[in-house]
Design brief:
Elements lengths: L2 H9 L3 E2 L1 H4 L6 H10 L4 E2 L1 H8 L3 E2 L2 E8 L9 H22 L20 E13 L6 E7 L2 E7 L11 E9 L2 E8 L17 E5 L11 H11 L7 H5 L1 E7 L21 H12 L7 E5 L17 H4 L8 E3 L4 E7 L2 E7 L5 H7 L8 H14 L27 E4 L5 E6 L2 E6 L7 H5 L8 E6 L4 E6 L6 E2 L6
Parallel strand pairs: 1-2, 7-9, 10-11, 11-12, 12-13, 15-16, 16-18
Antiparallel strand pairs: 3-4, 4-14, 5-6, 5-8, 6-7, 8-9, 10-19, 14-15, 17-18, 19-20, 20-21
Bound molecules: fe (ii) ion (2 copies).
Length: 478
């Protein structure tokens, strides 16, 4: 920016920070107008990003859909009531849509007026669930705003967990309902149509953990060189990568787990982000970075988490090709008549189900895929309250309101691509070798793998950057 441009801002009462003064901005008048419309009078890197963004690049467009704006709440009983009411209403509406509106559900308190033996339909939240020891029935306490009742299923239904919202149809017998039919909100199949679109690839990274002495620096360096076209293996894909997702745990952070300090090569969180910046800054600008936080990042751990904090990660906001979103978040990619919905969640809530459902506790890829399927069926990223730390906002950002084409997580440091219905499910590896903490719990991380999705047809491949020769990890084409 030259002095004349800086003066234009000053004359309009706008203070320009040093980091922005170094940037080239073409349409100053438009930017000043947009800032005045929004009553913003300090132009820092984050504001510049938020206003200009990079929504449109020719025919190629990235549109954020779910993006938590940073509103705060205080954990009061009233705030939790409002939060759960919103969650219930959102999931109830998804259930009604799923059942094509063919629902005659009554309020739970009205069940006392239903004659014995008559059929009844209910929509409620599972407030308690257990298996009867003798007959192996599933006994559920179902709750809506009007009251609670017992509903009983004659089978053991492993898809049901506490706090899901479900639809049941059954017969009233005494004070309970014996279930004939049960439905979760679930996702629907998106029909795939033939298209003439170009091959455009999205790649998914998470859990980079810069600052850790176990950070897989050489492998990430190899990935950046590949994106730059300096490596021949799979260069036809590298050229056509347009979206690079960084799905949380960008840095290792400070004091995140016991005795972490002994495993840190950078002991200052700002410097950890600065070191990530140096790596990301080498990626060509035509490739767009989507950056979200995780539980190791310098931001509150309660979900939803806002964009990475400019105070700690300010240097990342200098990346012209970066878009910052919340955790969770979702966005559409639109080009050549194609629209793909991508849902991102760092994945903190996955571990609750690893720890509480015995068949998943080996944390195999198929176990994590089953938990992700459970989330999609429940249309919620943390169906059971307590599976992750939450902020009781008026709107529940963890509801999966749109059916995603791709649902990507990380956090557990597994690496796989799987599919449920027409939704591609990804756990995006990590770029950190085994920590002492992981060793103690027998967790073996899958390091430096790269899930790749062709947005044209949702075909997938998992590349392996662990060794000098880039390989393919079989079993990940869905
Ligand atoms: Fe991680
Ligand atoms: Fe994590």
């Amino acid at each position: 920016m030259d002095q004349k441009q800086i003066d234009s801002f000053t004359q309009n009462g706008i203070l320009v920070t040093t980091s922005v003064k170094e940037k080239q901005i073409t349409d100053i008048d438009k930017l000043i107008k947009q800032m005045k419309e929004r009553n913003i009078f300090i132009l820092d890197s984050k504001t510049l990003h938020d206003i200009l963004g990079f929504e449109s690049d020719g025919d190629f467009k990235i549109s954020p859909l779910k993006d938590y704006n940073g509103d705060k709440s205080i954990s009061t009983p009233q705030a939790w009531v409002e939060y759960f009411n919103d969650r219930f209403e959102q999931l109830k509406n998804l259930l009604i849509t799923r059942l094509n509106g063919n629902v005659r559900a009554i309020s739970i308190s009205n069940i006392r007026n239903v004659p014995q033996g008559d059929e009844v339909e209910l929509i409620g939240m599972i407030s308690d669930i257990s298996i009867s020891p003798v007959k192996k029935y599933t006994i559920i306490t179902l709750e809506d705003r009007s009251g609670t009742c017992k509903v009983i299923s004659k089978t053991i239904d492993e898809e049901l967990v506490k706090d899901q919202v479900i639809f049941v149809r059954g017969k009233k017998i005494n004070d309970a309902v014996f279930i004939d039919e049960i439905n979760l909100p679930d996702i629907s199949i998106k029909e795939e149509t033939q298209n003439q679109a170009d091959d455009v690839y999205a790649i998914f990274l998470s859990d980079i953990h810069t600052g850790s002495s176990l950070f897989a620096e050489r492998q990430l360096d190899r990935l950046v060189s590949w994106l730059n076209g300096s490596i021949e293996d799979f260069s036809d894909i590298a050229k056509k990568v347009k979206i690079i997702v960084l799905n949380g745990d960008l840095v290792d952070g400070i004091g995140v787990y016991p005795e972490q300090e002994g495993e840190l090569s950078i002991k200052n969180v700002i410097e950890q982000y600065n070191s990530l910046y140096e790596i990301l800054n080498r990626i060509p600008d035509d490739k767009k970075l989507i950056i979200t936080p995780g539980n190791h990042d310098a931001i509150h751990i309660a979900e939803p988490q806002p964009h990475v904090d400019p105070y700690f990660a300010g240097k990342l906001y200098n990346l012209e090709n970066a878009m910052f979103l919340s955790n969770p978040s979702s966005f559409n990619v639109i080009y050549d008549g194609i629209k793909r919905n991508i849902l991102l969640y760092h994945g903190f809530g996955l571990m609750y189900y690893v720890n509480t459902i015995p068949k998943y506790n080996k944390m195999r890829n198929e176990d994590i895929a089953s938990i992700m399927t459970l989330q999609l069926k429940s249309r919620h990223l943390a169906p059971t309250h307590g599976s992750t730390q939450l902020m009781p906002l008026k709107h529940d950002y963890l509801v999966i309101d749109e059916v995603p084409d791709i649902y990507a997580t990380g956090h557990v440091h597994n690496a796989f691509i799987s599919k449920y219905k027409s939704t591609v499910m990804i756990n995006s590896s990590c770029w950190q070798f085994q920590t002492k903490y992981q060793k103690k719990y027998g967790i073996i991380p899958q390091v430096a793998k790269l899930p790749v999705v062709n947005l044209k047809n949702k075909r997938t491949i998992m590349l392996d950057f662990l060794n000098e020769k880039i390989g393919v990890l079989e079993g990940n084409a869905v």
